[in-house]
Specification:
By secondary structure, the chain is an alpha+beta fold. It is built from three helices and twelve strands. The protein has a single domain (about 35-185), classed as Umud Fragment, subunit A, CATH 2.10.109.10.
């Protein structure tokens, strides 16, 4: 009888040990490697919709530079408890200008086939029509793909790179949209 109880206790401790190990591994992955996120709002339509579930890599930018066209999750500059999903448009040190709905970087207009509408500007926002904006060296300029419905750098200026949580690399829900997230800009524009 004593051997049976000892075997049961050993079995329970083996299970607990496994649960603690798996739980610890999950926490490390979640906090330092990748994070699941849910898209909320229409700012990235037509490419991302409310309810889409995505995976965000927290380590991508430790191995490569940020590229124009990357989709990122970032902390809102106005409220760090809120996370945004946006696309990187301007890189550190570049000069960005929006004139009559067209975005140019360092004097060259970029073709954005992924956006839903022309790039509008917000009254009282950071960016003024036809006026150049120099992006500080440790910041990026981000915008949503649904420009009329996006609160982004046009409103609150560029964001510090340290506000970036990570690079969005995979969508795992809904089933009809599962797959890798690719950068839509040609290599020459990144």
């Amino acid at each position: 009888m004593g051997k049976i109880i000892k075997d049961i206790i050993d079995f329970v401790f083996d299970i607990l040990e496994t649960v603690v190990f798996v739980g610890s591994l999950f926490i490390v992955v979640y906090l330092f490697i990748l994070t699941p996120n849910q898209v909320k709002g229409a700012s990235m339509e037509p490419n991302f919709h409310t309810g889409d579930y995505i995976l965000t890599s927290r380590i991508t930018y430790k191995f490569r530079r940020i590229e124009r066209g990357d989709v990122v999750v970032l902390k809102s500059p106005k409220n760090p408890d809120i996370e945004y999903i946006k696309r990187v448009i301007g890189l550190p040190g570049e000069t960005l200008m929006i004139k009559d709905g067209e975005v140019s970087i360092n004097g060259k207009v970029i073709k954005e086939n992924y956006i839903s509408d022309v790039t509008n500007l917000w009254e009282g926002g950071c960016i003024k029509n036809g006026e150049p904006y120099k992006i500080p060296n440790d910041e990026v300029f981000v915008m949503g793909d649904n420009r009329p419905r996006s609160s982004d750098s046009r409103e609150f200026c560029s964001v510090p790179i340290q506000n970036l949580i990570g690079h969005v690399f995979y969508r795992y829900f809904p089933p009809n949209a599962v797959g890798w997230i690719t950068n839509p800009l040609p290599q020459s524009l990144r």
